[in-house]
């Protein structure tokens, strides 16, 4: 019998978390699922844990490959998937027991191509529930507009998606190590004819494993990726028949990427980025509603005018603890 849902789990060196993740999926109230676990060249005990679970549950397909990154691991899982729908779960996260059943029921009842679920974020010391979509149903243009304007996570893992959305390859250049979800979910959202939300219960638990400085440190490769991913989204949206409707959305997407680099004090190209941000704030006043922007509007305008003034003001913010590098 064809499974209703293919749950795809990319795994890399998460031996402490993969057991909890798999327990939450094996124990789903919906039993007609396949569980595709892609070990992306782990060097810890993750591989052995996956194989142990696969021996005890015939629904689990364990795939071991050389390290190629999360996009490569997901693509490997997609190639093996036989379900009617695809659900991505990161290997250090976990699902509510009835997540698959609720998502499937919603998709079938509404004939939706994509179902977006509520989630929370589990930090080491506390939990947080981000704002969620306000409507029950969206068309693709409105959904992309909402993602750009409302600061929602551009995550693949928060959605159940009809497998046909993946019939054509979902582009993602190898140099994107940050923002790859944003670029890919933009493409998939635009392909979906009908997008619905499931708002009555938190179904996905996203885990922040380590809040250390090293995990969040900015590198040259990461900074370049943060600058690049809005360009790939822009290129994709400009090639659609609805390109004119996405003009403001593209500005918002770029602005939020540049804000990340500003708050990490990434100096390379800072003045040019702040000029773009300063101009955008004047043209689109609603940008000031983005969290963090009101606190740093003065810094943005100063940096756009003078790198020297911007650097001095940045040092002041860092000294006061308003910005943590």
Record the SSE blueprint.
Elements: E1 5-11, H1 18-26, E2 33-40, H2 46-56, E3 60-65, H3 70-80, E4 85-88, E5 94-95, H4 99-110, E6 114-122, E7 127-128, E8 137-138, H5 140-150, E9 159-162, H6 180-191, E10 195-207, H7 213-216, H8 220-238, H9 247-263, H10 270-283, H11 293-305, H12 307-319
Parallel strand pairs: 1-2, 1-4, 2-3, 6-10
Antiparallel strand pairs: 4-9, 5-10, 6-7, 6-9, 8-10
Helix pairs in contact: 5-6, 5-9, 6-8, 8-9, 9-10, 10-11, 11-12
Written account of the structure:
- The structure is a single chain.
- With 325 residues, this protein is α/β, with parallel strands linked by helices.
- 45% of the residues lie in helices and 18% in strands.
- It contains 12 helices and 10 strands.
- The protein has helices at residues 18-26, 46-56, 70-80, 99-110, 140-150, 180-191, 213-216, 220-238, 247-263, 270-283, 293-305, 307-319; strands at 5-11, 33-40, 60-65, 85-88, 94-95, 114-122, 127-128, 137-138, 159-162, 195-207.
- Strands 1, 2, 3, 4, 5, 6, 7, 8, 9 and 10 form a 10-stranded mixed β-sheet that branches.
- A hairpin with a 4-residue loop joins strand 6 (114-122) and strand 7.
- The longest helix is centred in the last third of the chain and has 19 residues, at 220-238.
- The model has no long low-confidence stretch (mean pLDDT 93).
Summary of the model, kept short:
The mean pLDDT is 93. A hairpin with a 4-residue loop joins strand 6 and strand 7. The protein has helices at residues 18-26, 46-56, 70-80, 99-110, 140-150, 180-191, 213-216, 220-238, 247-263, 270-283, 293-305, 307-319, and strands at residues 5-11, 33-40, 60-65, 85-88, 94-95, 114-122, 127-128, 137-138, 159-162, 195-207.
């Amino acid at each position: 019998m064809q499974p209703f849902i293919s749950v795809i789990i990319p795994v890399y060196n998460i031996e402490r978390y993969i057991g909890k993740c798999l327990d939450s999926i094996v124990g789903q109230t919906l039993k007609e699922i396949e569980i595709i676990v892609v070990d992306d060249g782990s060097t810890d005990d993750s591989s052995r844990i996956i194989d142990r679970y696969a021996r005890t549950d015939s629904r689990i397909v364990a795939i071991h490959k050389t390290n190629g990154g999360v996009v490569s691991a997901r693509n490997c899982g997609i190639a093996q998937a036989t379900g009617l729908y695809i659900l991505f779960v990161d290997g250090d996260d976990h699902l509510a027991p009835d997540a698959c059943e609720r998502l499937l029921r919603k998709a079938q009842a509404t004939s939706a191509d994509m179902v977006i679920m509520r989630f929370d974020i589990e930090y080491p010391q506390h939990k947080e529930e981000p704002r969620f979509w306000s409507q029950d149903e969206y068309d693709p243009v409105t959904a992309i507009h909402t993602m750009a304007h409302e600061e929602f996570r551009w995550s693949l893992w928060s959605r159940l998606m009809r497998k046909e959305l993946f019939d054509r390859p979902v582009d993602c250049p190898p140099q994107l190590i940050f923002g790859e979800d944003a670029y890919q979910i933009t493409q998939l959202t635009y392909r979906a004819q009908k997008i619905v939300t499931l708002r009555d219960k938190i179904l996905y638990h996203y885990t922040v494993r380590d809040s250390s400085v090293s995990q969040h440190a900015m590198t040259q490769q990461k900074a370049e990726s943060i600058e690049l991913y809005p360009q790939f989204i822009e290129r994709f949206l400009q090639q659609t028949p609805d390109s004119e409707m996405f003009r403001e959305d593209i500005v918002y997407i770029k602005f939020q990427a540049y804000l990340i680099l500003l708050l990490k004090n990434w100096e390379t190209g800072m003045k040019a980025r702040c000029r773009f941000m300063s101009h955008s704030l004047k043209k689109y006043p609603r940008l000031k509603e983005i969290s963090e922007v009101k606190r740093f509007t003065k810094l943005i305008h100063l940096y756009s005018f003078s790198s020297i003034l911007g650097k001095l003001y940045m040092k002041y913010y860092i000294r006061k603890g308003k910005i943590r590098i």
